[in-house]
Amino acid sequence: MSNGLKQDISIGPNLKALRKKAGLSQRQASAQLEVLDVSITEDILAKMEQGRYSVRISVLLALKQIYGVSTFDAFFEGL
């Protein structure tokens, strides 16, 4: 069931760039999210990076940690 929410601005390309900068594959990133009790599959992560899936705040908090960024600004750079 879709939640019907549409993104007006996608942070997907920034998510992908930060993941690659951290040297992680989508599989590795989703595994690290699982360790942090954030259940996100590779498929969902791919959809987030493509701007086809809305990103929850709890996921951003976890991604900030595993991607090693100090502020949330990196997620929104260039928008």
Walkthrough of the structure:
By secondary structure, this protein is mainly α. The chain has one domain: 434 Repressor (Amino-terminal Domain). It contains 5 helices and no strands. It has helices at residues 12-21, 26-35, 42-49, 57-67, 73-76. α1 (12-21) packs across α3 and α2 (26-35) crosses α3. The chain starts with 11 loop residues before the first helix and ends with a helix. The relative contact order is 0.22. The mean pLDDT is 90.
The tally of domains stands at: 1
The amount of helix comes to: 40-55%
Oligomeric composition of the shown chains: single chain
Q: Provide the structure class.
A: mainly alpha
Span from first to last CA? 29 Å
CATH class: Mainly Alpha
Order of helices and strands: HHHHH
- Total of DSSP H or I helical runs spanning 4+ residues: 5
Strand content: under 5%
Average pLDDT for all residues: 90
Please compute the radius of gyration using only Cα atoms: 12 Å
Instruction: Write the CATH architecture name.
Output: Orthogonal Bundle
- Please describe the biggest sheet, giving its number of strands, its sense, and whether it closes into a barrel: none
Categorize the overall geometry. globular
Poorly predicted ranges (pLDDT <50, ≥5 residues)? none
Report the CATH topology name: 434 Repressor (Amino-terminal Domain)
Number of beta strands: 0
